[in-house]
Specification:
Layout lengths: L3 H13 L4 H11 L2 H6 L4 H4 L5 H8 L1 H17 L3 E4 L7 H4 L7 E6 L7 E6 L6 H17 L3 E5 L5 H11 L3 E5 L13 H9 L1 E5 L9 H13 L3 E4 L7 H11 L3 E4 L10 H8 L4 E2 L3 H8 L4 H9 L12 H12 L3 E2 H8 L3 H13 L3 E4 L3 E4 L2
Length: 376
Amino acid sequence: MTSSNELLNTAILTRLSYFNLNVMVALYRELGSATAIVEHRRELRGLFPGIPQKVLDALNDIEVVRRRAEEELEYDEQHGILPLCLNDEAYPSRLKECPDAPLMLFYKGTADLNARHIINVVGTRHSTAYGEDLVRRFVADLQTMCPDALIVSGLAYGIDVCAHRYALQNGLDTVGVLAHGLDTLYPARHRDVANEMVRRGGLLTEFMTHTNADKLNFVRRNRITAGISDACILVESAKRGGGLITTRISREYNRDVFAFPGQVGAPYSEGCNRLIRDNGAGLITSADDFVKAMGWKDEREIEASRQAGIERSLFPDLSEEEQKIVDLLQKTNDLQLNIISVKTAIPIGSLTALLFALEMKGVVKPYAGGTYHLLS
């Protein structure tokens, strides 16, 4: 167990190292602890002649930030937040390998950050029905093949929050990596999801409390999302975006990168398609593709899972008329109410009730303009 003195010294260095992280991490690895850095700070110039002067100046100002570090640890203790030092056993081991790993992480949750299989799922904040369906099917199928998998994302709008929600729905642990301290949440409308994640996953950040969700912090956050994982999966992305930053960092960390292809010319498929075209990501169309590519299960194991009935029926307990609607939408998705009525010969009054029942079962989703989308 990390001593209180080491926790405090690590928090102090975390506060001081925002713009000098790589140097501070190198010192930490060389001397073995934050306490050693603090105790020998007057001798560092002789020990490491190349150390930047601004780092030495920061270390000479330790007393300026000591109280702030003490307040942080007091807040953590009062609010069930676990501070993890780089040397801690519970610190994400995959992230430890990275040269710019945070000296300290702040964690609130129950998931094992060193789970056997960890995947980050990222993409655009402007997700489409196509992308959300991909995430839903991928996570549901992944659960049948790798029920111990941990899903990581950034709790942002779009693909991120879809990954978290579908992980929770399928009983998989999911961790959100945040760009601010754990005393707040951005975006605030994801509070309900975040609260559930604390019970069945977790929230993780390198930022102390009272840290705003500034633009630069999201870029820094992406390296943790990449570093903590075995693989990165890009679902939808424009030609520029945060998801592409995460895929680039993942490759730099020697992580596996995959992307789902999209329709040619679709704005939020352009990033994925280009990444695949330029050999920056492996093409996948399903969880089967991904699991096989990672070598987590071979063909025989996957087929055995199917034969054992682990691959669930997508639409159980449908009435004859409900099944007729589903069959139509499987052939041609995203149809308006009147078109569905004509093609199924079901009167509008009855059809409205049937579509509502299918919505409650999670089979269809209504969109603006009276269009219905099959979630399969």
